From TrEMBL:
Keywords per UniProt: GTP-binding, Hydrolase, Nucleotide-binding
Sequence ranges assigned to domain GTP cyclohydrolase II in this UniProt record: 273-411
Family membership noted in the UniProt record: Belongs to the GTP cyclohydrolase II family.
Annotated source species: Ogataea polymorpha
Keyword Nucleotide-binding: yes
InterPro entries: GTP_CH_N, GTP_cyclohydro_II, RibA, RibA-like_sf
Name this protein carries in UniProt: GTP cyclohydrolase II
Amino acid sequence: MVPAPIIAKHSCLCQPSAVHTHHSSTFKDDEKPISHCLEHIYGDQIRLATVSGDADVHPIKLDWYNQDWKQRGPVVCSRRGDGVTKHNAIGAHAGPYSLYHALSVVSGQLDPKHVPDYTNAQPPVDFAPQPQWYNSEKIVSLDPLGHLAPWLYGDVARAENVEVRPSMSITKAILSLPEIQEEVKKGNLKPDGKIVLNEKGEMAVTKIAVDPVWYLPGVAKRLGVTENELRRALFEDTNGMYPELITRPDIKTFLPPIGGTTVYIFGNPEDIPNPDKKLALRVHDECSGSDVFLSDICSCRCYLIFGIREAAKEAQKGGNGVVAYFRKEGRSLGEVTKYLVYNARKRAGDCADAYFQRTECIAGVKDARFQELMPDILHWLGITRIDRMLSMSNMKHDAIVGQGIEIVERVEIPDEMLPADSRVEIDAKIASGYFTNGHVYTQEELKNIRGRTWDDLS
Ligand SMILES: [Zn+2]
């Protein structure tokens, strides 16, 4: 028996005359903003979810690893047009920002029928397709064609009356960082007019923004669980937000509501897959407090700056430098958890031997970054060897090597770059397996490495 569609009715309570007259959030007393009554736009019946086997469900073909982009097909998750019955992906584009889109619509600032005009928005740099793009072992957490989606599949979108949106975008920029200016002043970095542009230390980069697109069978395999187990956990932990994780086992693609990645490339991006060219790489996980606001409790910004400097140097020598920046704040536990951990650390007399324990007490785990998925962007870039890995993390190292990418040299941050209060963090990490050419502290020695206490901060 074909199951009935899961439908709810939402009655319209607004006055018809009050609807759809205005597109601004600031309106006069006698005016109403564009409808809060979206039934007039979307209809009064809400299809809560589709079910595999629904008679009217005909998902657009998406053959994830097909090398022919026409045969592969676009990622379609939007409910717009005929998307409710034709989508082939669960979730929404733009990760957490999809909710701001909803606020813009409901507050009358955005016409829900707005069609993006992508004229001149295409990438300024060509990234040649790599064999890794079509390898089921290599890319499971981003759409390899995400940067070209509206241009490759515009015709499909129009013919099928569905929305196709990009999940990646590429641009060029100039970076101007005070620490790099200082390096140029000291003579440690020489302007060449190409990578480091001038005496002010401005640097030319190519940037790639990547939103995650998960191919569920591949993600499950990477984590060593079954696809069904993964679907159930995602469904439960998002409190049932994505019922089609359960009702549509035929749909294999999920756009999770999490932050993405930005890649900064120094040097010619076309050279990255070339094994004759050397590559320096920093994989950096977001730490807003340090990266942006220069908190001195950890080494994050210093390592980031070190990574950028070394990446630029490698590009100046004729190779490439890549810095991949992942939105995984507080080891993917979030900043709220992070500050609670800071408090617990400081009140207990911040000591390196209890560094991870404080996080585990609150979060239950010491880390939730799942580096297993991180190498996907490296595969997308065509990286097969990293000559200088600008990271001490054993988790990042093991994930990259486990994905078949060679690491020639691991480069630790110079001691003199570490900020005042960060020894607790870095020495605890080294004792837990982070790479160093220097001293690995014993648990007994870690007891003597202390950071600031609450008294020092008040
Ligand atoms: Zn940090």
